[in-house]
Design brief:
It comes from Hordeum vulgare subsp. vulgare (Domesticated barley). Helix content is about 10%, strand content about 30%. It is mainly beta and about 260 residues long. Among the domains are: about 40 residues, no CATH class; about 130 residues, no CATH class. α1 crosses α3. The radius of gyration is 22 Å and the shape is globular. It starts with 10 loop residues before the first helix and ends with a strand.
Amino acid sequence: MESEAPAALPEDALAEVLRRLPPHLLPRSRLVCKAWRDAVDDRLRGNLLPRSVRGIFINFEGEYYTEFFSRPSTGPAVDGELGFLPCTGVKVKDHCDGLLLCRESGYGAPPRPREYVVNPATRRWARLPRRPPPHFPGFDHTAHLAFDPAVSPHYQVFVIPRVPSQLPSNGESDDDDDNNPLLELEWPPASYLVDVFSSVTRRWDTTTFIREGEAAGIVADMQFGRWYYRYLYHAVYWQSALYILCEHGYLTRRTE
């Protein structure tokens, strides 16, 4: 006589059982079956984040690699050097809710360094495809990570154009860039294209940013204003909106 399949636990009971697992085991439990995956995604998404600080990543100016500082802990060790990645070293460029956006760094890094999104707690990682050609030739670009595990297991990476410390000459003069027409452009523009990578589609797509309100100034103001410093491009992803602090103290927001 064949035995009957065991009855499935009610959703509430299953969620309570899974809630008692260590947070670093929840991503694996999602792979057991559809019911477990749905329970984690619908009820326990916030539990995917660690409940204690295991260490901090610090970028020192002039250093190729990001340093990891941690204190002794009885919990699972975090590989702060990210030695499980297929490269010699990386630098953390951004972070969001436990995920790191890293870029290959060091003496042996290729001209177009590879980029990774990494979960240092679970050692899971994904390599990003090469970025598309920039929509603003001659400008710099900063990548920002958007991820909220309480809403979705998927993340996005936004590549935001920014004014470089020195714009290229327009070719009419080798000594003076004042005639460069780019210097007279409004910044931020009324609308501009932004490349966005999605972990759902696994590809780069293009979206349009629309400016609300007046421009902060022109490119020349951004380039030489007292607020300018190429490393001061900080972002916060909060309540499905990405806030980016850029030149001259203006704020860019991208909402879902």
